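quick one before i forget lol
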Amino acid sequence: MKIKHMGIFFLIMAFLYTLVEVVLAPDGSFNFFLPIALLTGGILSLKRKDREERIFKRKKG
């Protein structure tokens, strides 16, 4: 998984988490830390310089 893909994954997860919390927990209790952390991590990983860097490297051979 490349770092850019991880950033896109974080942004999608922040959107899905917010959607599920609003739809399934309408009692007014909402955790703002997790979506903000996911958005921050996603944006920062998308703004990194584009290198052929992988998070989970496969061993060759």
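fyi The helical segments are 3-24, 33-46.
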